[in-house]
Write a structure and sequence with these properties.
With 269 residues, this protein is an alpha/beta fold. The chain is 48% helix and 13% strand. The protein is built from ten helices and seven strands. The chain has helices at 17-27, 40-49, 52-55, 71-82, 105-133, 154-177, 212-215, 220-232, 243-254, 256-265; strands at residues 8-12, 32-36, 58-60, 87-90, 136-141, 181-188, 237-240.
């Protein structure tokens, strides 16, 4: 097990929710942090909420995961900030709350661009850096929905499923180049963040509603602590959430027909 201290850690989606909670936890241990999201002012707020002694080791690097052509420059800038990157936490993304029959293809494309293509673009731009240094760690925040599809999240679930396929394959490829480059897939269940509030609906507008399940979910700071333990243990994949969500992953594997009947009757919004 390798402790996450005195590491250079780049966090996307750091302006709120899980990314913000991770920032506060990781800032306690002498890490050098790079905080990214679209909203520079919110990143500065998160930085300002960190212990004063930690703020000198925190840099703000705004980016938009949906602007794929800009992400190579973002990766180069991240490397230059501290001279290298040890860990990339791919946390940024957007969710969905709409039925497939009511969702335009443009919304599906937007979710895939941000959640999938933006994530793998940053990842690919760091591969040469990690191979050259013979070390590195990719952490990918997917979702239980990336293992078990649920209603009102068809595009979101598709993007999260795609991440699992890409990063499972990448883990195997990178092992052949360097056995000290790791990939950890983190699958949270319902987490009390604004993910449902900021989710897209069928026409591309913002949902602006808090899910009941999300509101009752695990607190981001609790999730962050468990995530960090999983990263330190170099877990390949970990499920963090309530009993119902994590049980669903195993039911999908061993009792898929039963799970399908449960999901189609459940209210999950």
């Amino acid at each position: 097990m390798t402790k996450l201290n005195r590491k250079v850690i780049w966090i996307t989606g750091a302006s709120s929710g899980i990314g913000e909670a991770l920032t506060y936890e990781l800032a306690k241990n002498g890490n050098q942090l790079i905080l990214s999201s679209r909203r520079k002012e919110e990143l500065e707020r998160v930085k300002g909420n960190c212990p004063v002694q930690a703020q000198a080791d925190i840099r703000v690097l705004p980016l938009d995961l949906g602007e794929l052509s800009t992400l190579q420059l973002s990766a180069e800038a991240a490397i230059q900030l501290f001279g290298h990157v040890d860990v990339l936490i791919n946390n940024g993304g957007i969710s969905q709350r709409s039925l497939a029959k009511e969702t335009t293809l443009d919304v599906d494309k937007r979710i895939m661009e941000v959640d999938y293509f933006g994530t793998i673009a940053l990842t690919k731009h760091l591969i040469p850096h990690f191979i050259e240094r013979k070390s590195g760690h990719y952490v990918v925040v997917t979702s239980i929905t990336g293992k078990v599809g649920t209603p009102y999240r068809t595009g979101y679930s598709a993007a999260k499923h795609a991440l699992h396929g890409f990063f499972d394959a990448l883990r195997a490829e990178l092992w052949k180049d360097c056995s000290s480059i790791y990939v950890t897939l983190v699958c949270p269940g319902w987490t009390k963040t604004n993910v449902s509030v900021n989710a897209l609906v069928g026409d591309g507008s913002i949902n602006n509603k808090m899910d009941l399940t999300t509101d009752k979910g695990i607190l981001p700071d609790v999730l962050a602590k468990k995530m960090i333990r999983a990263i330190e243990r170099r877990k390949n994949e970990v499920y963090i959430g309530g009993k119902k969500e994590t049980l669903a992953v195993y039911m999908k594997r061993f009792f898929p027909d039963l799970l399908a009947r449960i999901i189609r009757k459940a209210t999950v919004r």
